[in-house]
């Protein structure tokens, strides 16, 4: 899931070199943290959170085959 979030984020932002994606396991949940440059936060979140919601939906669909829940967190650097 980490690679999927990274590809999507890098396609959206102006500074793809500043995109950092990390992944950690917690019980039966995988938490994917996405960090982007402060100037790119609006592009990743979108109006009323639509882009962020779309990223989460794509990750949820991709993880539906596994027995794990995947949560995407968007953080500022």
CATH architecture: 2-Layer Sandwich
Spell out the helices and strands N to C.
Answer: HEEHHE
Count of strand segments? 3
Biggest sheet, spatial arrangement of strands: 1-2-3
Query: How far is the N terminus from the C terminus?
Result: 21 Å
The geometry reads as globular
Classified by CATH, the class is Alpha Beta
Q: What is the count of DSSP helices, taking H or I runs of 4+ residues? A: 3
Quick rundown:
With 77 residues, this protein is of the alpha+beta class.
Helices and strands in order, then pairings?
Layout lengths: L1 H11 L7 E7 L2 E8 L4 H5 L4 H13 L6 E8 L1
Parallel strand pairs: 2-3
Antiparallel strand pairs: 1-2
List keywords for this structure.
77 residues; alpha+beta; three-stranded mixed sheet; globular; GMP Synthetase, Chain A, domain 3; single chain
Explain what the structure shows:
Helices cover 38% and strands 30% of the residues. By secondary structure, the chain is of the alpha+beta class. It has a single domain (2-76), classed as K homology (KH) domain (GMP Synthetase, Chain A, domain 3). A 3-stranded mixed beta sheet has the order 1-2-3. A hairpin with a 2-residue loop joins strand 1 and strand 2 (29-36). The longest helix has 13 residues, at 50-62. The chain is globular and about 35 Å long. It starts with a helix and ends with a strand.
């Amino acid at each position: 899931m980490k690679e999927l979030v990274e590809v999507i984020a890098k396609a959206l932002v102006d500074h793809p070199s500043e995109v950092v994606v990390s992944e950690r396991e917690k019980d039966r949940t995988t938490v994917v943290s996405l960090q982007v440059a402060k100037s790119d936060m609006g592009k990743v979140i979108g109006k009323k959170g639509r882009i962020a919601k779309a990223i989460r939906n794509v990750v949820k669909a991709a993880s539906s085959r596994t027995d794990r829940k995947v949560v995407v967190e968007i953080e500022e650097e």
